[in-house]
Design a protein that fits this description.
Layout lengths: L10 H27 L6 H23 L4 H22 L4 H24 L2
Helix pairs in contact: 1-2, 1-4, 2-3, 3-4
Amino acid sequence: MHQHGTQQTSREMQDCIQACQECHSVCLTTAQHCLQMGGRHAAPQHITLLLDCAQICQTSADFMLRGSELHGRTCGVCAEVCERCAQDCERLDPNDQQMQMCAQVCRQCADSCRRMASTMSM
């Protein structure tokens, strides 16, 4: 029955929380951008993936902030969703600056979450 206070949070976990929060924000902004662009940008599967990514990023950040013992699990799923989102954004419009920024932020979050998930998989 040990609790993890914010002070005891590792630097790596703090970085991951930050990456997740940034990715959450960027995915929501990108979803709005895509809806305004319309056409293939507003395809239901793409918008759903952006919103899924935003949600899992927020959830993972929340699990880490609470010191949940299950945060390694949420981070593993988060890494997978972020990777898919990055690929989808790159594929959809390689020339759109917002889409490329979203892909880059998703990749960074995926890498960070993958590290957190691997340290927890015992």
